[in-house]
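Worked problem 6 (solution included).
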Amino acid sequence: MTTSAFQISVAVFALITLHISALDTFIAAVYEHAVILPNETETPVSQNDALLLMNKNLDILERAIKQAAVQAAQIIVTPEDALYGWKFTRETIFPYLEDIPDPQVTWIPCEAPHRFGHTPIQARLSCLAKSNSIYILANIGDKKPCNSHDPTCPANGYYQYNTNVVYNKEGKLVARYHKYHLYSEPQFDVPEKPELVTFNTPFGRFGMFTCFDILFHDPAVTLVKDFHVDTILFPTAWINVLPLLTAIQFHSAWAMGMGVNLLVASIHHVHLNMTGSGIYAPHAPRVYHYDMETGLGKILLSEVDSHPRSSPAYPAATNWRAYATTVKPFPVQKNTFSGFISWDMFTFTELSEKSGNLTVCQEDLCCHLSYRMLRKEDDEVYVLGAFTGLHGQRRSEYWQVCTMLKCKTTNLTTCGQPVETAVTRFDIFSLSGTFGTVYVFPEVLLTKIQLSPGKFEVLKDGRLVNKNGLSEPILTVSLFGRWYTKDSFVSGKTSNLATTYLLIATLLMITALQNVVMV
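Solution. The predicted structure is:
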């Protein structure tokens, strides 16, 4: 999690320089793409067939890029895996890869398409940026040759990376980022360390990372806290997971918690619960899209502040534990029970009355809730829950969560299971917690998977409260905390290596047991 003082000094100097003759606002675009997938195969296709598929997807992206440019957008983000999908082995992805150079080489692929070998996709993206005078972020595959003297060099002689590229309005390659936190991506390698990639424009300082990266400290938090980016570009193939991790819910909360613009472009694939793109400002979502009904792509555009920290609407700093640690706790509920959200065991207590003040604790995390329902529905049950610990099957990310949520049925054993509709409205809610981390993301999710812009706020003392009257029917109100220093794999190489570490530990245990038996 360390960054060099020199890098940070350069970033701060660039940030000061950037404000000279900068634009106060800009129009951003993101495109949710229904990707055309390849036929499943265990044998690699030809390079020509791979290019044919990528160009079919690029034909669709080109229409979105031109539409964005016509509407005066200055930058557009397209999704992760948008050119070829995600189901590959190391061998079957290889025909889709190109060698992507370091942007320091000063290269406009549209003008010199053969300078770095066979790069037709990079050339086409560069030409699209140049001809439409727009910044473009695209996600493609990078291959980097290595040799036998490198002990970690893969058998095929290439490192393969899930990669974001950015071209400016002249078609110049200005940024390249290799995804660090892979999620079930055996076709790609993990870079040696997280890359901290930024670039400057007349409308702000930008950083980028990809999908699963957003759940970890590096590069995500470091880009915001140490490199002072104004806007994060975020291509993703996000799989929605209720009740806490739908795309629009968590991404809007991350933008608010980190105090930065977040431009999210997601893959659209309803059968895999993939949807949820948006343009999020620190104080509220600007525009978002969630569609589990159709198979169609969608372009979103919005004007956003180039330097949100200078905006009058920029949220005040929050002490997430100030209220919860100083207020006299409400009576801790005796009728608590355990229930699971995904793989995590929460401690719950029921909201048994129309209004009330509740506290529920798990270890050193206590969650406080004051609430009042418009009406207590007979067929809907809500609970207050607390969780602190390592999350999920991987047990790699340390979470602290306070949540008020609707149970799937009136049977308390269903609390924490996915539910998409509700009718209960609240005219008061105030949620806080004794968090041990400063990284807390406030979520409010409404019935039919909708956000609640302008209807809640975070107070300086860490309370998440409703405002502007009666809420729409609520699914969840949550404070989602990430305690990065307690993660079990601080290096971040959790996804592909976690299984390896587990196997090694298992083998060592078996060996030890065998030795005991032999003795």
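Discussion: Residues 17-21, 490-519 have pLDDT under 50 and may be disordered.
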